[in-house]
């Protein structure tokens, strides 16, 4: 049955909610839903205990083999495994100098053929990487949908709108490998908000993820096996008409070890425009966001004027309410 861990765990980071054995509408659902929604509304983040979603064998296979093998592949081979254009940070980048990362296949989506000249051993290895990433994605999909449903249901959104919101999403996996920080006191990733609906973050072994609390302090998310962090992105702020804030988070460099993480992220399907759900707009809650064309927003945020702004979402589709 779902339960919320006590105050002592807040001291180590953010509150944890136990979702083991909690199924949609079943025993413990309402209690867990309230706890998840409260944390998401306060912080835009929650930590979940989820043994079934990431069993030890899958974790070992993913981080012990598939992720290191993925990053060891030549660029062409990596490219054939990702579902869209490679993000600029696939190589080292100015913004996150110690980090290499990429997206991997979307669940259920076949990889593009291996580049010509790929040996049988390499292509066998690539298939094995895809299998591990797909197993991870398949397990995370149910979890991410569960959290999305919990948040919207507890805000009073009806079943039909929850279902159509969930159907409007696309999912993908992002793998990150951060190089060793010698100093141990720097940042691996600066404070930022994700341009997603939700991200489920799995840290492997080495800590670093921190989320900002309402008082401005940073709460560490410990890399405990059987736990994942769920982070609200900017598009969930739009969908919920600001009830769930996009979580400001960062990755610190705590000690001299390489750090690996995997994220399962949801975004609007190609071409979808995101707007506040009807049930969350009324006289007391005027719309805070105009409809947000996702593709245009991505261009604005990463290639246009939005790059320099601290709150590009607000600049792109925020409704300014005068006095
Ligand atoms: O590696 C992590 O723990 C989180 C990475 C992150 O915040 C991101 O890729 O946006
Ligand atoms: Fe992030």
UniProtKB/TrEMBL annotation:
Enumerate the InterPro entries for this protein. Answer: IPNS-like_FE2OG_OXY, IPNS-like_sf, Iron_ascorbate_oxido_reductase, Oxoglu/Fe-dep_dioxygenase_dom
Q: Where is this region: Disordered?
A: 81-124
PROSITE patterns in the record, alphabetically? FE2OG_OXY
Q: Does the keyword Isomerase apply?
A: no
Q: Name one GO molecular function term.
A: metal ion binding
Does tRNA-binding appear among the keywords?
A: no
Compositionally biased, Low complexity: which spans?
A: 115-124
Entry keywords, A to Z:
Iron, Metal-binding, Oxidoreductase
List residues of the Fe2OG dioxygenase domain. Answer: 169-268
Family statement drawn from the similarity comment of this UniProt entry? Belongs to the iron/ascorbate-dependent oxidoreductase family.
Name by which UniProt lists this protein: Fe2OG dioxygenase domain-containing protein
Q: Which organism is it from?
A: Urochloa decumbens
